[in-house]
Amino acid sequence: MKKVATGFVPIIAVSRKAAKPLQRQIYDAYRAAIVGRNLRGGQQIPSTRALASELRISRIPVLNAYAQLLAEGYFESRVGAGTFVSTSLPNRNGSAASGLRESSGTSSRPRPVSRRAAALPDFKAPPWIYGWGAFSVGQVAFDHFPLQVWSNLVARHSRRVEPHNLHFSDPMGSIDFRETIATYLRTVRGVSCEAKQILVVSGSQQALELSARVLLDPGNQIWVEEPGYRLSRNSLLMAGCQLIPVPVDDEGLDVNAGIQQCHHARAAYVTPSHQFPLGSTMSASRRFQLLEWAQSSGAWIIEDDYDSEYRYGNMPIASLQGLDRNSRVIYIGTFSKTLFPSLRLGYMVVPPDLVPRFLAVRHAMDIYPPYLHQAVLTDFIRQGHFSRHVRRTRLLYSDRRSKLVDEIHSRFGSRLPVLGSQAGMHLVVMLPKGCRDTELAMAAAKDKLWLWPLSPSYSGRNARQGFILGFASVPQAQIPDAVRRLEKVLAST
Questions:
Q1: 490 CB-side CA count, 13 A
Q2: Domains of the chain as residue ranges with CATH
Q3: pLDDT tops 50 at residue 4
Q4: pTM value?
């Protein structure tokens, strides 16, 4: 039986001056709450003594009202447990008793929503989004995370909370955390920044939303990578932007193509260190070309430093922002990819003259970031746990990536070309002509094989068919069987 939250006293108002007896007022209030589905089947009801105390009335009318509700089947009593809303009431999804219906709004007056909201497709998560195992994208090696170290830090900071930690805090984020991030970025990513430029956010998605609100007006044109990250496109659509898909090749975003398509775009959104989803790295010549275009046209560059910590076979590539001498780049990073997705903690580096605008918009959106995980992650980084974790997982992911590439080549040869295997936590395989990646992914999900289709990453009609295969969370010993199951899925076409 589903456990329902208990201990809540429902909103019941009684009046001694009303013509209706107290017993009837209580009965009517409970019945209306159950019929209106404010109280659900299995939800515990406060005891007669507790309700009488809450309403400041005698217990007798409460007892009488409960007795009537029990007799009519709205309540049920469980020995030793208490009184509950009856679980035998109909499930009101269509064929319900008179009066037990949910409001759909279909018979009301017009219910307008904004054009920006209407531009987004309805959110219906496909099975591979939350699937657990091979080859789900965005999953890390959870079993190799230093959970005990993290738990100890969380416990220590939870025990030592100061009163000022419970109050409003800096909208930019904790200064200790921002100084730690600044040191990390300057040292490891070649980012030119100080703590006063860093804004702590809930992840790269909020950082992009902030950037769009500060830098872009409805109708502005912005370059986006083709193919590219769908959630970033949704954020830009919500800002009312006109998206200009710019093709990506082995050198990253094709800047010449972008200039030819829309020279006067207001901004460009790029993932230069590890392009999502194809995995290419933007070449040095393209980086300088992009910076030159932004300076000459007065445009902004939003750099999402996606998966930059994980490169195999060579050193990590320095950030695009570190090459910028004109403060045209807004740099975005996140800890969700390196640590764990539910952390929801990221950061952005803002040009100094834009900090007041970003700060004002951020404060209007959600005031400031939460305290606890900033404090925990500050210690986690300063004590060396973060760098050790990245080094260990880089070796682990490199082995898993190599095993996956070998297995794909062994079973498919040249029939399944592999792209983007030199960095990150996923690679891409291109499908033979005639295959439909979304249909195959739906079929594979029934066998708990989570194949992310490539084609939805395209915004145009000429979408290429393939799969984005995450390998970070797949133990090396399980990779051969996962590839065998992939072969079985393709053989079914």
A1: 22
A2: 1-100 (1.10.10.10), 127-138+388-491 (3.90.1150.10), 150-384 (3.40.640.10)
A3: no
A4: 0.82
